[in-house]
Amino acid sequence: MKFSNTLINWYLQNKRELPWRKTKNPYFIWLSEIMLQQTRVAQGLSYYLKFTEAFPTVFDLAKADESTVLKMWQGLGYYSRARNLHFTAKHIANDLNGEFPSTYKNIIKLKGIGDYTASAIASFAFNKPNAVVDGNVYRVLSRYFGIETAINSSTGIKEFKTLAQSLIDKKQPANYNQAIMEFGAIQCKPQKPLCIFCPLSDSCVALQKNVVEKLPIKEKKLKVRNRYFNFLVIKTDDNKTILLKRKGKGIWQGLYQFPLIESKKNINKNELITTEEFNNLFPHEITISLFNKKEIVHKLSHQHLHTQFWIVETKKLPQAEINWNKVEKYPVPILIANFLETYQAKK
């Protein structure tokens, strides 16, 4: 009990004041948890406030169209989170009469919700004794107990979940779960943890063995794939352009992009204009220039996108139906959003 009591006492004195900690509303807690996956609190906070203002209830989110949700999500990345969020909001609003499930067993059945999120919602909204295990929890437990099992292995996932569940304070599970996550976020940090001021330092195995910086252990990641993107930024004489909605199950599903020619390596202008895709798109005379003189490398979890933006000026194109004044209304990947910000500033 010393472990859980120490963490809760530390939390009550050191916790950050965050809006989702001041509510038991499962809708708001669910929003915050989905947004904070793979996202720092400092970045996620503004999105949370924006979403709760625009969609104060699950019914409001359910009624929105997907394009609006994706546009508001723009910049958070991992857009499948937003699509699943919208899908589940419609399910809760339309099939469950707006009532959020109250048990881990039923919460985890919802699309886009895994073990961690289901445990968090059950605990924070309904005070159920379901232990959360996120990156912060893995780090605290692996260091304190000196566990060398890889946290991203199937064995490790089971081992840490079992341990976390055995440690939870069943009288105040919400406080305990918040405490161990907050402790990992601001005390037992990934780099330069504050061991000298740690209330658990006298019993931390990693500190005693001088292996704090080596834990937790992760198995090697999958090989990163390099891809080469050439975006054709079209501007017609009547100030129109083309934006295409990405389909399929790949990256950026549901977002918009300029016409794309993917190549096997970085290509120059002459190589680009001789491609079949380019010639099919531009039957008339064009003026073309490379906007970014140095390739932009956009890093995703398992892909590095080596990107060039080509400005193509031409006469009227039947496919070019979007006025440049309307471009900012479309949800686009952050890679394109950053380009547009720079491009518009230089015009």
Automatic annotation (TrEMBL):
Note describing how the cofactor binds: Binds 1 [4Fe-4S] cluster.
Pfam family membership, one: NUDIX_4
Catalytic activity entry: Hydrolyzes free adenine bases from 7,8-dihydro-8-oxoguanine:adenine mismatched double-stranded DNA, leaving an apurinic site
Keyword DNA damage: yes
Any one GO MF annotation of this record: oxidized purine DNA binding
Alphabetical GO biological process terms: base-excision repair; mismatch repair
Cofactor: [4Fe-4S] cluster
Free-text function comment from the UniProt entry: Adenine glycosylase active on G-A mispairs. MutY also corrects error-prone DNA synthesis past GO lesions which are due to the oxidatively damaged form of guanine: 7,8-dihydro-8-oxoguanine (8-oxo-dGTP).
Name of this chain's protein: Adenine DNA glycosylase
Species: Polaribacter aquimarinus
Gene: mutY
